[in-house]
Recover the amino acids of this structure.
């Protein structure tokens, strides 16, 4: 199984020493002075952050570090108090979430949002962009959209096969298991032909048997030329697939770098110690080599 | 007990202008609630806008009947826009509160004496079907048509035919929309609008389109109703909204023909109870007076609505898996 080989990591992503806010050779997302407060609590306060293109970047940090809030800000689901951020050189400040998605930046949600009472295939077809039949007037004339709809269906079926959901295509999404819904959400996101895929805790609540296939799917995204940014608490996964790790704590970026080095930094250990006293520190920092045992 | 008369009156309501008007309004609610998930409790307001729009255009502005009806539809679009722009960003239950309030505000505006020369205040409006030429446009020569309980004079036949044509067009329109990718987006929004937004769809625009289309169906319902009866503010009360909801849920909210069949069943049942309950009271079978018997009807309808929502939320035609209130 592919879990027995460490996937090839992308290198040469950064310029200079890996430190919070360091420059990247080819940034996809550039974030400047983004700040968001909820009442007295500063949820996100990022001075400068660049997300490298063509790599898998993990965003980690203890609960309440502001990871999901940053996700919401970047995708237009929430607006920051101050700050600017750009995607492939285009400023995204004040751009509504649906336009952000149209630009090729697609996200999934921490609490899976499968469209329960649509079939699996309908869920998939909904993801496709630029559908003529989605216009109110054009939708009334089937000859305008029928051909495109068939093409979308073929593409949806290919993706469903890849995610092993093709036998469920006519079932309501509500009947899928939690893990299958995660897969469906990811597959649906891919229907939009994204450039940047943002996954919010893709492994949460997924059983170990599915974990491996989800990991492979995420790696697959990179192989197909997409950039991945994901939030995750599962350090096993982070070490295994991430090319770059950004660590957040209390809304700030406290460390970043390749997974092999960043997880040994004092800032990371501190960040996790605060909220994760019950977690085995060795697993968090990578001193206990659970991954490596599996890798040999 | 005169069972022949009771059944004749009951069967008559299978096809009346009122049944057709309810079917149109329920079709609008199916668009709003069944497909787009918009909790609209102000369908009576949309019907009132259609009816008053038609009557006022004819009586005050002297437009011909067809232009007046178009004005009624246009007015409902304006009403949807005014209501939708601030409220469609709200969560579903808040939209319900706003729509119920908007419908009441409208009704009170039509009722107030301040605009009596235009709205007719509590007396409502009448005579517009003659003034606008709707009655003159009747293609049927005077006489008696149909058979048994379904015997119509030329005037009623014209309204029923007109209503049937409008209903058929609306059913076809809704069916065309909901089988298309547009309908897929609408149903997706019903399930989870954030997920649809994350896929690059302009959720607000879609919800607005759905609100307008359903509102136009509701306005057409009001117009068909007005084409037969007078326009009176006492008709467009909140209980009308709930009757239309009952008709919708009876047939199945997320279906195309459900609202139509639901309205027919609702009116047949209503007519049956209206006829049978006073008879039972008069004959001493029910220990109440005839007037009380007439009110019991509404109690039974209310109880029926509750049982329906609890035990058969998908309605008669709906798919239990596709629409349920217990998620």
């Amino acid at each position: 199984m592919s879990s027995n080989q460490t996937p090839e990591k992308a290198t040469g992503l950064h310029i200079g020493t890996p430190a919070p806010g360091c420059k990247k050779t080819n940034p996809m997302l550039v974030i400047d002075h983004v700040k968001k407060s909820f009442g007295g609590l500063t949820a996100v306060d990022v001075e400068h952050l660049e997300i490298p293109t063509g790599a898998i970047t993990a965003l980690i940090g203890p609960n309440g570090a502001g990871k999901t809030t940053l996700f919401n800000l970047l995708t237009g689901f929430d607006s920051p108090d101050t700050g600017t951020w750009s995607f492939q050189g285009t400023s995204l400040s004040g751009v509504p979430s649906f336009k952000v998605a149209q630009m090729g930046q697609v996200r999934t949600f921490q609490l899976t949002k499968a469209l329960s009472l649509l079939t699996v295939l309908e869920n998939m077809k909904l993801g496709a962009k630029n559908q003529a039949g989605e216009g109110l007037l054009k939708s009334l004339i089937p000859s305008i959209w029928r051909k495109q709809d068939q093409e979308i269906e073929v593409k949806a079926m290919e993706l469903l096969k890849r995610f092993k959901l093709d036998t469920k295509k006519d079932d309501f999404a509500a009947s899928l298991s939690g893990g299958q819904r995660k897969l469906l959400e990811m597959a649906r996101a891919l229907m939009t032909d994204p450039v940047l895929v943002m996954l919010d805790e893709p492994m949460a609540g997924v059983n170990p048997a599915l974990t491996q296939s989800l990991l492979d799917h995420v790696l697959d995204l990179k192989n197909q030329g997409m950039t991945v940014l994901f939030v995750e608490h599962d350090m096993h996964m982070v070490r295994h697939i991430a090319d770059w790790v950004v660590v957040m704590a209390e809304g700030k970026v406290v460390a970043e770098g390749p997974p092999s080095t960043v997880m040994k930094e004092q800032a990371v250990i501190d960040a996790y110690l605060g909220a994760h006293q019950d977690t085995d520190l060795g697993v968090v920092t990578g001193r206990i080599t659970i991954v490596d045992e599996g890798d040999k | 007990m005169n069972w022949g008369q009771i059944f004749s009156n009951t069967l008559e309501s299978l096809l009346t202008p009122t049944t057709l008007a309810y079917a149109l309004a329920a079709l609008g609610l199916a668009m709003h609630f069944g497909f787009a998930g918009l909790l609209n409790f102000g369908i009576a307001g949309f019907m009132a806008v259609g009816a008053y729009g038609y009557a006022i255009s004819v009586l005050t502005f002297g437009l011909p009947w067809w232009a007046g009806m178009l004005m009624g539809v246009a007015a409902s679009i304006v009403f949807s826009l005014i209501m939708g722009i601030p409220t469609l960003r709200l969560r579903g239950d808040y939209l319900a509160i706003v729509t119920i309030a908007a419908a009441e505000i409208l009704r009170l505006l039509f009722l107030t004496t301040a605009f009596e020369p235009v709205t007719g205040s509590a007396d409502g409006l009448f005579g517009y079907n003659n003034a606008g030429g709707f009655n003159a446009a009747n293609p049927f020569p005077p006489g008696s048509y149909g058979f048994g309980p379904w015997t119509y004079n030329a005037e009623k036949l014209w309204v029923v035919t007109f209503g049937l044509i409008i209903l058929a067009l609306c059913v076809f329109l809704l069916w065309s929309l909901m089988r298309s990718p547009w309908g897929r987006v609408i149903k997706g929004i019903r399930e989870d609008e954030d997920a649809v937004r994350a896929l690059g769809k302009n959720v607000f625009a879609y919800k607005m389109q759905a609100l307008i289309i359903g509102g136009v169906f509701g306005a057409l319902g009001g117009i068909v109703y007005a084409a037969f009866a007078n326009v009176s503010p006492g008709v467009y009360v909140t209980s009308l909204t709930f009757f239309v909801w009952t008709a919708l849920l009876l047939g199945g909210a997320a279906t195309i023909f459900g609202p139509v069949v639901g309205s027919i069943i609702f009116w047949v049942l209503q007519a049956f109870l209206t006829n049978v309950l006073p008879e039972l009271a008069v004959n001493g079978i029910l220990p109440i007076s005839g007037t009380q018997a007439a009110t019991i009807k509404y109690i039974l309808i209310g109880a029926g609505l509750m049982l329906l929502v609890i035990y058969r939320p998908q309605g008669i035609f709906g798919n239990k898996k596709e629409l349920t209130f217990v998620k």
Notes: The longest strand of chain B covers residues 144-147. The CA atoms of residues 145 and 152 of chain B lie 5 Å apart.
